[in-house]
Amino acid sequence: MIVSSGQNLWKLYGRVRRLSTAGPIRMADSSIAQLRVSYRDKGDVLLEDNLESKNPHQLFSIWFKKASERGDVRQPNAACLATATKSGIPSARFVLLKGFDESGYTFFTNSESRKGREIEENPVAAMTIYWDALDRSVRIEGAVEKIDETESTKYFDTRPKSSQIGAHVSRQSTVIDSRKSLLEQNEKLEVEFAEKRVPRPSYWNGYKIIPKTMEFWQGQSDRLHDRIVFERADQAAKKQITSHAGENGWVFYRLSP
Q1: Three-class SS state of 253
Q2: Contact 95/139 with Cβ under 8 angstroms?
């Protein structure tokens, strides 16, 4: 803008001053506030008497199977994993659930990454899986243990070779110069392992969350969502809450939405 006189300069100054004192700029506040979707209607609810299993692992398996069989759930095993430092500073990221049974829920990662370091320092975690197309979510909380290295190697050997090489290239969560340097290292290892088996890096391991609680959530359009929590019976007894008998040492109860 060309200012031709002192008068115009003062006008410009006044405009800038008003902008600078108008408070924080909020981008698209109104449109974000209006974003909402409808979930299930009042006739389609999750009731304690109608649970497909009173064992949380079996119930998870049933829900997971339904999500896996749908064409509109691209990655049913995508899970948000939350960890924290010993002082309570949290972090979260998405991982892939790679196995589950009565003993726990397994994922694989670089032990030198931020989540790996936090698990080493504070071996507890929460994992949330959300299936948008089903209006359902499962939250798993508990202690975390590193699985046997033999099992980690067994799974690593099933991965695509490009992913195996990528595990060697990426020292996860460390600062790098550029993407170019990453690709140069990748190309170098592609040549090195062209005709050879790619070994599992010692820092690449599997972990298992051993649940102490599991929450099954189902969305309702009136926002009176269903929340059914499974907890080990001995833990629930200490809380002196009303609960229902589950299977294999579990009880379950409903939480207010």
Answers
A1: strand
A2: no
SS3 of residue 14 by DSSP: helix
| Catalytic residue of the set 223, 227, 232, 254 | 223
244-245 vs 250-254, strand pairing mode: antiparallel
pTM equals 0.85
d(CA 114, CA 81): 12
- Residue 11's alpha-carbon distances to 3, 23, 91, in angstroms, are 10, 20, 48
Both tokens of 216, joined, read: 């099954």
Render pLDDT for 89-134 as a digit per residue (tens, 0 to 9): 999 999 999 999 999 999 999 999 999 999 999 999 999 999 999 9
Phi, psi (degrees; rounded to nearest 5) at 181: -65, -35
Least confident of 3-7, 55-59, 208-212: 3-7
Q: Is pLDDT of 9 > 50?
A: no
Q: What is the pLDDT of residues 162-179, one digit of tens each?
A: 999 999 999 899 999 999
Q: Given CA atoms 75, 76, 77, 79 in this order, what sign does their dihedral have?
A: positive
Token pair 């060309």 is found at 2
| Other CB atoms within 10 Å distance of the CB of residue 193 | 15
Asked if 172 contacts 110 with a C-beta cutoff of 8 angstroms, the reply is yes
Instruction: With a cut of 80, say whether residue 29 has pLDDT above it.
Output: no
Residue with tokens 């670089």: 110
252/257 Cα distance (integer angstroms): 15
Check if 232 is active-site. no
Q: Which amino acid is at 102?
A: E
Measured CA to CA, the distance from residue 201 to residue 192 in angstroms comes to 15
How much is the average pLDDT of 43-63?
A: 95
